[in-house]
Structure formats: C-alpha cells, structure tokens
C-alpha cells in the first residue's frame, strides 16, 4: 500500500479494544483516518487516541460504506459473525480477535512470528488466535522446526483480564473480601478455577479445545498430539503456562535455549538459582513472550519443560492483531 490506510477499531471501548488503541499508538501505526465503532450500547461515548477525542460510532450494516482498509475487531463472536463478512464484502481486511472464524478453512489464523505467509491467502478475514495459543505458538515454532514436536501438554494459569471488566472486578472486589461472582461461578480471589469458557461433552472446556485445534492449524501439523488444562488464577494481567513437550529427535538444552533466544518476539528469562524466571507482573504491558524454567523432562525420551508468560491483552490479543495489520500494509 503506497498511502496510509484508513482504519476502523470495532469494539473500541472494551478491554481489548482500548488496548488496540494503546498498541497502535505505541507502535506509531500509520493511518489516514481512524474510526471508532462499537455496539449501540457504547456508541456515543468517547475514546482518546493520540491525544485526540473520538466519538464512538454505532456499528451498523452501513459502517463500511466509507473507505476503510483495515478493521480490527474485538466485539465478541456474534458481532464478528455478522459484521466481518459485511466489511470483507466492502473490500476491508478484517483482523478478528474472536473465535468465530479461527477454524474456518477459508480464514488464515496468524501469529506473525510463526506463520506470516498465511496472511497472503486471506479472503478479507484474518483470525487472531486465542491468547493462550498465541504465546505458546511463539515458543513452539522454533522447537518444532528443529526437533519436530510429538506431543504437548499445556497447563495454563490465566489472568482475570481475559474475562474483561467483569473478571477484573470479581478479583478486585474479592481481594477486598467481597465475593463477587459476575464472571465466574465461584469466587476467584483465593481460588484456582479449572474452568475457562464453557464445558463440552468431551469433558474439556472450549478454551482447552481452542488451544488444541489452533495449535494444529497454526503449526500446520495435525499429527502433533496436544492436550490442555486451562485454569483461571487470581492474577490481573498476563497468562502463565507450563508447557511440557516431547520431541521426535534428541536435543541439547543449550541448543534449545539458543533457538528460543534467537527467535523474534521471545525473551529468555532463566536463572532460577537467582530466583529469575518469567513472572506475570513483569510481563504485563510488554509485547514479548517470556520463557524460562527450561529443563529436561527426565520421565520421557526427548522431553522438556518450559514456563511461558505473556501479557494476554497485548501479545495475546491487541499486539498480535496490530502486527498482522503491519504485515498487511508492508
Ligand atoms: O479467558 C481468557 O483468558 C481468554 C478469553 C478469550 C475469549 C473470551 C470470550 C470469547 C474468547 C476467545 O478469544 O477465544 C472468546 C471467543 O471469541 O470465543
């Protein structure tokens, strides 16, 4: 594109939407015009972007009649289901943060450090993966290339910001002794809830199945065996993940460490003797994926354990989407 794009932010008032604005500003994303959109409920409110106030427009079937090049959507699955195809039909490229289109074979599912080339076959919609998947992919990709992954076990420790304002309020109030349960069926303060999104007939939660299915699609390899347990913990920002991996081929720990350190978007934080390992509070507000506790799993052949932390609203959502938009305008 040899001019600056016109951009729409759909869901501009939500937790992810407002972080879209922060990330666009931080990365100095070039734009000609920017339009803030949201459902009727939030329309009319204002948001500040680059020091200027914008009135949030109501998202309607006519929102994309004006010339818009890129729309960043984070307004929930049903909004994406209805409006992403309308936008695409108007020539807009939608980067959608919901799960609505992720597993559609016509829709690329992209982590820019991992499978940037998939952007090229988009038909107007590109899906942003689930936050827990994104940070895992950045770490798995260089290792899958080098040693071929046979099996992965994910155990997640997910921040309440992943549940939006209600999750954040439940924890805030809980820490003051008020057991609010607006986002979760149980108090989150003082608890770990092995329950993210709804339960399916197979006993897994939707969040767990998202991690499994999206791993296959992004790495382009359905033969990898994947299982997951996703857990909500009383942490405000950043998802932490214990990732256990079995490789097809033998490895040296030093080579793994180097492959991770050399990969874009990864910071190795691994000096346990000095109490140095990735921490949720330190990852908050950052765009990288932090990995540490890199150690051999002695219980299997070619096994390894990792601790992986990233800001779920930035790299797990807004930053990844803006990076996709950056590739689009390159
Ligand atoms: O719970 C989290 O930490 C992440 C939540 C993600 C989420 C929440 C509601 C709906 C998603 C998602 O991105 O998969 C969705 C959805 O679009 O299905």
Walkthrough of the structure:
The protein folds into 2 domains: 7-129 and 317-329, NAD(P)-binding Rossmann-like Domain (Rossmann fold, 3-Layer(aba) Sandwich); 132-312, Dihydrodipicolinate Reductase, domain 2 (2-Layer Sandwich), CATH 3.30.360. Helix 1 crosses helix 8 (314-329), helix 3 packs parallel to helix 5 and helix 3 (131-147) crosses helix 8. It is α/β, with parallel strands linked by helices. The protein has helices spanning 15-26, 77-89, 131-147, 164-175, 206-219, 253-262, 280-283, 314-329, and strands at residues 7-10, 34-38, 46-49, 52-55, 57-58, 70-73, 93-96, 125-127, 149-158, 225-232, 239-247, 266-268, 289-297, 303-310. Helix 7 (280-283) links the parallel strand 12 and strand 13 (289-297). The protein is built from 8 helices and 14 strands. The longest helix is centred in the middle third of the chain and has 17 residues, at 131-147. It binds ligand 3JN. The site of ligand 3JN has 11 residues, from loops.
């Amino acid at each position: 594109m040899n001019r600056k794009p016109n951009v729409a932010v759909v869901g501009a008032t939500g937790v992810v939407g407002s972080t879209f604005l922060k990330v666009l500003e931080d990365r100095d994303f070039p734009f000609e015009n920017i339009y803030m959109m949201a459902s009727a409920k939030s329309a009319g409110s204002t948001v500040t972007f680059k020091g200027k106030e914008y009135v949030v427009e109501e998202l309607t079937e006519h929102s994309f009649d004006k010339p818009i090049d890129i729309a960043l959507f984070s307004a929930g699955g049903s909004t994406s289901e209805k409006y992403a195809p309308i936008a695409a039909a108007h020539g807009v490229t939608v980067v959608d943060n919901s799960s609505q289109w992720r597993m559609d074979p016509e829709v690329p599912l992209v982590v820019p450090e991992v499978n940037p080339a998939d952007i090229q076959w988009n038909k107007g919609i590109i899906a942003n993966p689930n936050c827990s998947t994104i940070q895992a992919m950045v770490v798995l990709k260089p290792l899958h290339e080098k040693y071929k992954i046979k099996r992965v076990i994910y155990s997640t420790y997910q921040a309440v910001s992943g549940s939006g304002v209600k999750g954040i309020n439940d924890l805030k109030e809980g820490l003051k002794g008020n057991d609010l349960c607006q986002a979760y069926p149980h108090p989150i303060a003082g608890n770990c809830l092995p329950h993210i999104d709804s339960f399916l007939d197979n006993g897994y939660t939707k969040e767990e199945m998202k991690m499994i299915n999206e791993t296959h699609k992004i790495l382009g390899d359905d033969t990898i065996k994947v299982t997951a347990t996703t857990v909500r913990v009383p942490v405000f920002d950043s998802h932490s993940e214990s990732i256990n991996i079995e490789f097809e081929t033998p490895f040296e720990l030093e080579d793994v460490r180097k492959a991770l350190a050399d990969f874009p978007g990864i910071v190795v934080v691994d000096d346990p003797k000095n109490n140095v390992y990735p921490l949720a509070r330190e990852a908050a507000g950052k765009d990288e994926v932090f990995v540490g506790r890199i150690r051999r799993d002695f219980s299997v052949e070619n096994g390894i354990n990792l601790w992986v932390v990233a800001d779920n609203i930035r790299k797990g959502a807004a930053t990844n989407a803006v990076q996709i938009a950056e590739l689009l305008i390159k």
